[in-house]
Amino acid sequence: MRKAINLPLIVSLPFLIVLVTPIFYLIFGSMFFSIGGEIFNWETFTKYILSPRTHVLLGNTLIYGLGSAALGTVLAVIYAWIVVRTDVPGKRILRRIPILGLTVPLLVKCFAWVALFSPKIGLVNLLIRQFLNIESAFNIYGLGGMIFANGVGGFSLAYLVIEPALNSLDPSLEEASRVAGSGTIRTLFKVTIPVLLPAILSGFLLLMIMSVENFDYPFVLGYSVGVRTLATELYYLVLERSPPNYGGAAVISVIFLIFTILIFSVYLWVTRRAYKFVVVTGKASRASVNKLGKWKYVALAICILIMLFNFGLILATTILLSISSYISLPGGNITIKFTLNNFADVLNLPFFDKALTNTVTFALASAIIATLIAAVISYATLKSKVKATRLLEYVSNIPLAFPGIVYGLSLFWMFLLIPGLSHVIYGTIWPLVICLTITRLPQSIRIISGNLIQIGDELEEASRVCGAGWGTTFSKITLPLLKWGLLNSFRYIFVNSLRELGSLIFLVTPQSIVLMVLLLNYYSNHALALNKVAAAALIIIAITIVVELAVPLLQSASQRLKTRREEEQNEV
Amino acid sequence: MKYKVEVKDVVKKFGDVTALNHLSFKVKEGEILSLLGPSGCGKTTALRVIAGFEDIDEGEVLLDGIVVTSPSKKILVPPEKRHLGLVFQSYALWPHMTVYDNIAYGLKLRKVPKNEIDKKVEDVLRLVGLSGLGDRYPSQLSGGQQQRVALARSLVYEPKILLLDEPLSNLDLRVRETMRGELRTILKKTGITAIYVTHDQEEAFVISDRILLMKDGKKIQEGTPRQIYEHPANLFVAEFIGRSNIFKVHVKLIDEQRHLARVEVPDLSTELLCKYPADINPSDSSLIAIRYNEMEIYESDPHIKENVVKGKIVAREYRGGVTDYKVRVGKSFINVTQRKDIEDGKKEVYLYIPPESVKLLSIAE
Amino acid sequence: MNKGITKLNAVLIALVIILAAVAGYGWLRPVTEVTEEVPVEVTLEDLAKEEGTITIYHAIDDPDMANIIIPAFKKLYPWANVEAIGMSLGTLTTRVISEYKAGQVSADVIIAALNAFMPAIKEGAVESWVNPMEGLMNYPEENLDPNNNWHPAYIVPLVLVYRTDLVSPDEAPTSYQDLADPKWKGQIGFSRPETLGDAGVVFAHLYGEMSEDEWTSLMEAIAANEPVMTSSTSDVVQKLITGEVSIIIATVFDYTSLRDEGLPVEIVWPEPSIFVNSPCYLAKNAPHPNMAKLFIQWLSSAAGQYALAETGRPPMHPAIAATTVLAGVLPPDVSLVLACANNMDFYENPEQWADRFREIFG
Predict the structure, then answer these.
(1) Which value does ipTM take for this structure?
(2) Which class is C156-274+337-361 in CATH?
């Protein structure tokens, strides 16, 4: 039986080949470049799988992953519902700020968490000791602290995935429930959340996988109390061990890959009937919000509290760091040596201009490219009826399976081993853009898919009946309706790229230096450079805020134009 | 005669489920055909097959004499090349475009020059009764207005064939009743060939020239509304069209000349005379159907020779203009709907059932 | 339906085969060697001038490199174009080895700690070269490499640093053995020994100073003292700053930086006082070998050594170090010993040491 040519599929395939290639290079590379140590083969693999140490690592990793993902997702659902579907005051600002949580480098974040909640010197504990006489109320060290810090941080990404879906939701679904007698909260649980399930699961899936690979928090908050995860092990094998153990690293990477496939399978199984969730059907209706009455101040308080932990407290610490040479906190004696030199020092760093320009350029480039590719791939996987799309969905998540460092390493090896490529590409910004685009593609696909899954097929079918082919339909109908998802994808990748480190350390050259790599290297030589890192982080946050402000300004300008037109009509 | 749409022996399976089971029908030019049936009967699938959104497992679909879907010939013309119109149940208006843009979309694709587009959009808006609303966004329109825009959008580029998928089911009753008449008027005015999918029997009757009744992917009966109404082929049709009382019968006597049959109705403890259409073989039947509104209750003996039974009113419901009566006759009940009032409290009545109202049903479904 | 999948599979398989072939080709491609003959009449500087540019991979930080070292070099060689990039030791080692093995060497000169860079030397990524400046500058024998694989740059003396506001000078530890004293429970910080960073080097060195059993009990005692272990020295220095720990194993440079900022810290030179060697190397198959040699020569010359001193790092040349960075900091009765000179096994089999430390410290 003949099948119609599936354009989205054909377009997506080359990209997916590109995604899969580094894995080959990871395995080849670990064999080719290995320096004694372990080789990636069946023996090594079984040795790792069977070792009890691995089981402990795996256990910790899973608890950490599940815990942070759950926390981050729950916070995101609550926050998103409040700012999108209720009349909470300050909506315009509340809706934009979650992304700020992504701007702070993890190094600074870790410092902030310790400075606030360390049992010995944490400021919050200090205050509580002072006023409530409780000794060491909070302990950020250990699995609990790790889960809290990572969950609260992961809230930002989960929010970016869930918000567009919630935005496109047909409010009549909730209204129907209210009419039937169900209160606001009950409606939230019985109608809104079930319908949003794909987006929520998307967010959860992403957070879980990324948490599993995250090593910053486990290092800083877990190691000294004996908590080890697979990610810390991987980092150790590749970057700390001398000589590096690429074979072992490859094994752990494969474990990550299996894990990602498993989680993703669960996700697909649960959301398999995509048509159930179609709720943007072109039956246009005015958006209405749930009125909370006096509860809206409680809602506001909840949002502020979430943002406080996600960003507010950390921002305060970052500012404090940036305007001081050091912060000393032993036993309640707080000594801060203030200075404004950090900003000048950062700006005077050699190649600062170059590093900043490079950073912003590749952040922009990767954000745009990845968003476009992700839109096409999302479309192909969701709308195509060909059986092979299932494979496509799995493959598009592969970059998620590997921690940034591993992907960066694989790409480094790939560029080295593909003849001719390195001459052309080394020293330019393109390895970095490619790396960032690939490693951010899965998140982007999740964000856009969560939005796309709710756009009814009929809107596109109507276009095709009118005579438009796939291309026209995609650009005139699908893309405009996807604009929330696309925008969030762009914002996420841009902001995240500004502070990205792990995957790039193998790819930077003197000509393509990058701000964060520069700064963190500075820190690893001079502990006191932490304050300069904080100052640089503030600069990045400032850039982000400017970009974030520009977008809604444009939006409200166009909205005002539209409303004015409507008003003129209604008068006629 | 050349048919606009030909569906030939189409089989369509979704996994284990057979959605279309050797379905065949033809639509003449300018004809409005309704695909009528309960949910899951395959009518929407049939429409989507004609539109080109679904491929088929066996059979062929032809539009204007040209094969557009044929698995054996490996042909599947994509929807955008079939030059059809399709009105969706949910209207599928693009929320980010104005009414004008929604309608003009198909014309822009055909590279029609702007001033011609303006004229055509204006004309079609006038046709559907929405002149002047071109600058509105769909969210600013009522359901009925949105429906008209959807219709306008599919008519503006003058397609050969118009497909409509339960277009009125999302409107409230009043609007629906107005719209269906208007719809027929508009369609006839343009002379377009239309296939209309619905589950609402009344709607189908008002709108269509011919009706095709479907169940489980098969054609059950095909004919004009009157034909189907007056001569339901079997139990399913009888139960689907109008409200009918169904009784088991034994055929006792047949007068083939006058097409009369005498049947014994055990449940009613009586015998009835029934007039049957030419294409039914009475000896095949074991069931009769009597429509609620095709009998009359008399308070006293009407002195009619045949088909009068005595009964007792056990329930009545006033529905505004007509009343539903439940009358006990023999061992069973007959439901009667009539305008004429029966005096309150009156229980013992006479029920006259005209022979034409006693419909013999064939066994085959 | 089936035909579609088969076609798709065929395309995928074809692409996979092509990629595998490409990868295989890269793998099997022979690595070419480059040798150079230097004619007697032409000076090294002339040859270097022809090359004009140099790329340095280093573990110094970029600001110091760009603000101090490179300008000092360019004072003598203003025509030179110097590209440098700093990276962590692990990254650096991996990149150099990978580039060498793939035949795509980008760095001409590398500056990195010896014990971390040893795997690269073992792999042959380093060119052995006799540096004439070493003889001219009269470096002591123990500060030179008999195999001429590495050349003098700077050293990293390891010390104990403690907070004078948290630890009184009379109680303060005077030796590494004191770290096992239970009164310091939970107050000591150092980088994870398994990373073979500062603490790892110190402990490995101590192994050469005592018996196997003594050493094991000392290690276990220190581990039992609930030390705060971090991923890097900078992290543990920050912990000293915030006051989360009172005593750390760190470098002299850390001490002087903290002291200069006004923090109440004091330095302890335990017995033995060891230093980590952070030399420079000439990369094999360097794209600009003559520039590289010029730079290495310069770095081991007085000008280079003083430039390094200016960054706060003790240069390799003992006299210059003593009169600059270490003046007033290194007591006259303390002599610095090369880390693990008494335990060369540390350089030969680092993985085993890493595993050992992992066993003990978790």
Answers:
(1) 0.81
(2) alpha beta
